[in-house]
Amino acid sequence: MSTVRDPAQRREHFDVLLAAWLVDDASPGDQAELHALITAEPAWRDELLAIYSQHRQLAALHSDGADFVAGVTGTLSVASRRVPGSRRFSRRRRAARNVFPVRLLAVAAGLAAALVMAWLASAAPAIGRAERVDSVQVVRSGRTRALVVGDDLRAGDRIQAVGRGSAALRFDDGTFLYLTDGRLDLAHGARGRSLVLAKGTLIADVARQPAGRPLVVDTAHARLTVLGTAFTVEDDADATRLHMEHGRVQLARIADGAAIVVGAGDQVTVAPGRPLVAVPHALADGLVGVWDLEPERLPNFRGQPLPVAGPRGHGVRVDRATFAEVVLGEDDLPFPGTFALAAWVRSDPGMVGLADFVTLSDYFSLRCDASGRFMLSYIDFGQPDPAAERFWPTRQNDYNYILRAPHAVAARAWHHVLGQFTAEGSYELYVDGVLVGSHRTSGKVRHEDRHALVIGHHGGFDRNFKFVGDLDEVRVYRRGLATDEIRALAAAGVQPSP
Amino acid sequence: MGDSISVANHPDQAPGVPATDDDQAVRRVLAGEADAFAGLVRAHEYFLRTWLAARCPPGVDGDEIAHRAFIKAYQIIDGWTLGSSFRAWLAAIARNLLLAECKSARSRSEGARRYVDVLVARAREQELAAEPAEVDDRRAGALRACLELLPASGRQLLHQHYAEGQALKDLAGATGRSTGAIKKHLFLLRRKLHDCVRQRLATGGAS
Questions:
Q1: Which of A21, A62, A65 lies nearest to residue B159, judging by beta carbons?
Q2: Helices (DSSP H) in A63-190: which residue ranges?
Q3: Which domain holds residue A202?
Q4: Does A62 contact B163 at a Cβ distance shorter than 8 Å?
Q5: Scanning every residue of chain B, which has its alpha carbon at the shortest distance from the alpha carbon of A96?
């Protein structure tokens, strides 16, 4: 809501917000403020509607009518294979029937259809050509035929692979597209070019697009707005996956409109129930999930998680009564197998004793104390190792081990903590990208049928070791990470201003 | 250079083609004359596109609707009554297409919490539903006339932004001004045009 009270200032504020909204530069907060202002001032609402109409008319006045006519006639040349109006001969056409005998009209219309097709086909603008083709068809106005090298591409075309077919297409502006095993619809409207990908994989190297007229790629799950870049997008029934090579793309999730900008080297998967987060390519391999803890994407917390500024956007502040449990799929972490668990954490000096901030059920916990000393607690049923520190040293046959960082790190600062079980059979603990403890075992990790990621305290039956402090971006991998990758994760955080 | 800037892509055809010309054109389409429908598109595209532009909510491309309306008109051209207004018939087709798009745009905007966009889409739906059968688009004519009254520098800026699609940042870079200054200049031009159009419509000077 706007807090501006003075009428003149309110008016000026309205003008600023309206100017921003007209050029699509109003944030959700701006939109909320503008909406509040026009709701309170009906005259301003009318003014906004009128100015917006005029804004759109200005664009129409300045656009090229010849292009538009060519676009319509071009579509007609491929969209209409029958005589216009021939499907019925209504009462409304009696006047016409009086003028044109039916038989003569039918013959004339048949000739006309051929002429229209020939004339309009020559007038339809081509937007590109097929450069390489392997088992691909083009559908133009409902007619399907094989696409061949050198064929013109036109707005309205559907390019579809037969089986594992593929096609390399190039637009007139130099944009290169490579489609495999899928279907791609081409369109060219006043706002620029657009593509609709339905299943399959599309590799794109997009030439710089005119200002204000980006290339838009739609899939079932996402809309990509592209100004000029190289990327690969895969679409199937479950998800859309975007891999960026260079440049930047704005990606909007169809389901809720949530949007992120995806940069070079990043990958995003858009699927129901998954957080909308960009991750580096290499670090996307084996990734089970990322919980970025943004306010609008919190997992189901009990208690009151408060938003805080974290090293990866927003994080949450949790207390002893606040925790979340996320059930992972059975295939997410196959056992026996390797895995890694990571989080950004800032412990609170008021915390008492030991606390688990993220845990996989009750067999693998990232733990700390108020001083800022981090630990990895895990259960392993391998051959007992007397050299390793056990959590309950006096108990017989206890398989609960603990790795402790040798030193405390600064409390009340954010740290990146990662624990993992590697393919070499080692448990490892990293703090801020540095290995601080490891333990090699025979590798009998405790098996669980049901894996729960618990944020805020220990998992399993005994929900103790309650954490007090701040958390951000929790990640789970089904593999052990290399040291370079762990360093990259730790380096990706930015300490927020106090 | 500034004085040469205009919106001259369209000839002054906005007031329209006499109904008898439309009759002739449709008869020719039905009789199989190849370029007759293209002639109808040329005759009415300016009207339909500016008429739609004024009624489109955010996220809906008026040219796309106009495109589809012409295709639809071609497909059902035997449904038009000879001697009636082709323009009104075309606008009715476009209105139905736009109404469906408004609903869809409103739904998308609600999902994305774009509050102002939702309001505009809803207002457009109501306006379209209440639109009189007689199509009247004096607003576009008034806007065109008002554009000619702007200083050359203003017309040039509008041309660069709307016709050439130059972004605010590019315009700022080219003129050595800040993006904010360009945004404000554009906004003042729009307001000036708005006042001019309102005045012309009130005094009947649009057409």
A1: A62
A2: 65-79, 94-99, 102-123
A3: 126-280
A4: yes
A5: B27
User: Are both A107 and A145 inside the same structural domain?
Assistant: no
For residue A198, what are the contacts with CB-CB under 8 A and spacing of at least 6? A182, A183, A184, A185, A219, A220, A235
Query: In this complex, is the C-beta atom of A97 within 8 Å of any C-beta atom belonging to chain B?
Result: no
- Asked if residue A339 and residue A269 are part of one domain, the reply reads no
Please, are residues B66 and A67 in contact by the beta-carbon 8 Å criterion?
A: no
CA distance A395 to A390: 9
Is A116 part of any domain? yes
Task: Give A296's contacts in chain B (Cβ within 8 Å).
Answer: none
Pick from B56, B60, B89, B116 the residue to mutate for testing the A interface (most A CBs within 10 Å).
B116
pLDDT of B1: 32
Cβ-proximal residues to B130 (8 Å cutoff; 6+ apart), any chain: none
The count of C-alpha atoms lying within 13 angstroms of the C-alpha of B152, restricted to the half-sphere facing its C-beta, is 5
With beta carbons less than 8 A apart as the criterion, state whether A169 and A197 touch. no
Residue B56, token pair as written in the block: 């489109």
Q: What is the DSSP string of A367-417?
A: EEETTS-EEEEEEB-SS--TTSPBSSTTSTT--EEEEE-SS---TTS-EEE
pLDDT tens for each residue of A167-211: 889 898 888 888 888 899 998 765 678 898 888 888 888 888 777
Among B97, B93, B15, smallest CA distance to B50 is for: B15
Which tokens hold the place of A46?
């009318």
A172 and A102, same domain (yes or no): no
Check if B62 contacts A (Cβ < 8 Å).
yes
**Span A410-461, pLDDT tens digits:** 777 899 999 999 988 899 999 999 999 999 876 666 656 557 899 998 876 5
CA distance to A403, B25, B38, B44, per residue, from A114 (Å): 81, 18, 15, 25
What tokens does A123 get? 């007038």
User: Tokens for A130?
Assistant: 């097929």
Q: How far apart are CA A135 and CA A148, in angstroms?
A: 9
Q: Which residue of A has its CA nearest to B166?
A: A211
In a domain, A1, yes or no: no
Is residue A40 less than 8 Å (CB to CB) from chain B? no
Provide the 10 A C-beta neighbour count for residue A245: 14
User: Does B27 contact chain A (CB < 8 Å)?
Assistant: yes
pTM: 0.42
- Residue in chain A closest to B120 (alpha carbons) equals A49
Report B:157-196 residues touching A (Cβ under 8 A): 158-159, 162-163, 165-168, 170, 183-184, 186-187, 190-191, 193-194
Residues A153 and A108 in one domain: no
Domain boundary, last residue among A280, A315, A330: A280
Residue A194: which region, alpha, beta or left (left: phi > 0; alpha: psi -120 to 50)?
beta
Tens digits of per-residue pLDDT, B28-86? 888 877 578 888 898 888 889 988 988 999 888 888 889 889 988 888 888 888 878 88
Provide the shortest C-alpha distance from residue B20 to chain A (in Å): 14
Chain B residues near residue A120 by CB distance under 8 angstroms: 34, 38
